[in-house]
Amino acid sequence: MTTVSEQTTHCPICARELTVRHIMSTNNFGGQDSDFRSRPIGYDPLHLAVSRCPDCGYADYSPYFSEPRPLSDALKARIRAELKPAGEHADHKISHIYAAIAQIGKIREASDEELANLYLSAAWCCADEDDVFGEIAYRKQAIRHFESALANGTIRTGNLAVIHYLIGELYRRIGDVENAHTWFNRALAMQPETGATPQFIEMTKRQRDNPSDSF
Ligand SMILES: [Zn+2]
Prior knowledge:
By secondary structure, this protein is mainly α. The chain has helices spanning 45-48, 63-66, 73-82, 94-107, 112-128, 132-151, 160-173, 177-188, 198-209, and strands at residues 3-10, 17-25, 50-52, 59-61.
């Protein structure tokens, strides 16, 4: 099962005292979706891994509230200026916290791969929140940043096939069959050193020809 501990710490941006939760253990006994979302038994760490300051709106993975990122004063000032204070009565949608982390990620010049994964997490949370439009919008953002990461050559060679596959899978899940097939076929044309193992090829062909939402 997923277990958490609570810690009282301070916001790295405005110094407000706040309590964050740290994930101590989790599991993936519930299997994995075909867009790589792990399914634990018990509480989902996706919902527990992030925190947001109720005063200034700073959001991040919880460990960065305990061990803050090395942000310059200038960056902190920019983050503070661009964030909307969340407020004690703001909505507590986890999807919005991931989106806020991505917004802050752009300010601290996070990689496109990191931003894509944050938007993918936001999309998964929207699915849990029955927010279909939000889910589609964040999947599109994830696609855009994965495509940028490929275009600027920042994806590790061994991950190239899986990122091509994932872009195809994200297009499939927003109902864009044409682009899904284009990207699945690109994944199928990848060389073995990019991660295109026989098992990967089989999985990609299945998602192209007879797709399923879980592995
Ligand atoms: Zn704060």
